């Protein structure tokens, strides 16, 4: 086991979040030696250990202080928090950031052949789900008197197998629901992956390391959303060119060797440049228009 001075981060070992988590840690500058079957990976350039576990275990590990940080779906976090709250053991965890991967919805669905249904249809019905706490809270909020059937997997086959009348399950494209002859209803929860921290964490060294990682995390997020735009723009049309550029940033203008009529225009934009805008820029006489991804940013 690692020593206690090292910051411990729990991530999903294998599944929908694991690749993005590993990529994020890499972008934060954490160098890991991830060997396939290892539970713990030690960072070689920072006092950080990464624990790779089932995603369902992540909230508990962070709440109990076994790990200092964790990356988990908000769906799993919310379910675990509600479960702890009900058993009177709240667990102290705070969300440090919502991440830009792992998006999904927790939605109700029922057999397609029943056609459209409203909330009153659920009265007296059995709903299968892996998220009994979140579903129960929703039913209570909406004043629906349905019973909850807890299933840990293959929820989408429950109606066909006669285990339930409807389901409440995670959806991203809806293809799984469609393949199982189910019709999608209300969304109960929208979820992304998020970074969580044990709220009781007091170790000054670990807190300082988190303070160092957070601006990097914001920088990675900002860089992903931003583009570096370059072009040769006609001096006579600069105002019109600038009016077409997205975002509020000021462009940099540079002299272009051997040209009196054109300048090189560079800018960082929080948005991409759409084909239509590029065509309008070209129509104004701009050329060599480049839109490039940005790897890192620090303001
Ligand atoms: P584990 O073995 O770690 O318990 P799992 O099978 O419970 O894995 P995955 O299917 O890998 O979990 O999903 C992990 C998380 O990815 C989900 O809890 C959710 O936050 C997110 N996610 C994103 N899109 C989807 C989707 N279409 N279906 C299910 N989960 C999704
Ligand atoms: Mg799981």
From TrEMBL:
Signal peptide: none
UniProt GO molecular function: ATP phosphoribosyltransferase activity
EC number(s) on file: 2.4.2.17
Reported cofactor(s): Mg(2+)
Catalytic activity: 1-(5-phospho-beta-D-ribosyl)-ATP + diphosphate = 5-phospho-alpha-D-ribose 1-diphosphate + ATP
Domain ATP phosphoribosyltransferase catalytic: 54-218
Origin superkingdom: Bacteria
Pathway where this protein functions: Amino-acid biosynthesis; L-histidine biosynthesis; L-histidine from 5-phospho-alpha-D-ribose 1-diphosphate: step 1/9
Subcellular location: Cytoplasm
Regulation: Feedback inhibited by histidine.
Sequence intervals crossing the membrane: none
Every Histidine biosynthesis HisG C-terminal domain range: 223-296
Main location: cytoplasm
Gene3D superfamilies hit by this protein: 3.30.70.120, Periplasmic binding protein-like II (3.40.190.10)
UniProt keyword list: Amino-acid biosynthesis, ATP-binding, Cytoplasm, Glycosyltransferase, Histidine biosynthesis, Magnesium, Metal-binding, Nucleotide-binding, Transferase
Classification via InterPro entries: ATP-PRT_HisG_long, ATP_PRibTrfase_cat, ATP_PRibTrfase_CS, ATP_PRibTrfase_HisG, HisG_C, N-reg_PII-like_a/b, N-reg_PII/ATP_PRibTrfase_C
Family: Belongs to the ATP phosphoribosyltransferase family. Long subfamily.
Task of the protein: Catalyzes the condensation of ATP and 5-phosphoribose 1-diphosphate to form N'-(5'-phosphoribosyl)-ATP (PR-ATP). Has a crucial role in the pathway because the rate of histidine biosynthesis seems to be controlled primarily by regulation of HisG enzymatic activity.
NCBIfam families: hisG (TIGR00070), HisG_C-term (TIGR03455)
Protein name: ATP phosphoribosyltransferase
């Amino acid at each position: 086991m690692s020593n206690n001075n090292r910051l411990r981060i729990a991530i999903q070992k294998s599944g929908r979040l694991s690749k993005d988590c590993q990529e994020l840690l890499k972008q934060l500058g954490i160098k890991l030696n991830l060997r396939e079957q290892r539970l713990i990976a030690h960072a070689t350039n920072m006092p950080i250990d990464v624990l790779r576990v089932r995603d369902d275990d992540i909230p508990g590990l962070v709440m109990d202080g076994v790990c200092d940080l964790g990356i988990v779906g908000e769906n799993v976090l919310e379910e675990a928090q509600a479960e702890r709250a009900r058993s009177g053991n709240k667990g102290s965890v705070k969300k440090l950031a919502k991440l830009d991967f792992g998006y999904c919805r927790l939605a109700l669905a029922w057999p397609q052949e029943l056609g459209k249904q409203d909330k009153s249809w659920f009265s007296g019905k059995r709903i299968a789900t892996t998220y009994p706490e979140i579903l129960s809270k929703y039913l209570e909020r909406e004043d629906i008197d349905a019973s909850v059937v807890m299933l840990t997997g293959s929820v989408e086959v429950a109606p066909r197998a006669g285990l339930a009348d409807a389901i409440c399950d995670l959806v991203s494209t809806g293809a799984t629901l469609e393949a199982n002859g189910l019709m999608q209803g209300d969304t109960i929860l929208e979820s992304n992956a998020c970074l969580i921290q044990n709220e009781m964490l007091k170790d000054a060294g670990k807190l300082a390391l988190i303070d160092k990682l957070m601006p990097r995390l914001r920088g990675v997020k900002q860089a992903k959303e931003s583009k570096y735009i370059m072009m040769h723009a006609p001096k006579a049309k600069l105002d019109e060119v600038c009016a077409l550029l997205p975002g509020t940033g000021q462009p940099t203008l540079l002299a272009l060797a051997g040209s009196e009529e054109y300048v090189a225009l560079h800018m960082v934009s929080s948005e991409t440049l759409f084909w239509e805008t590029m065509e309008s820029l070209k129509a104004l006489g701009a050329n060599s228009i480049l839109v490039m991804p940005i790897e890192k940013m620090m303001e």
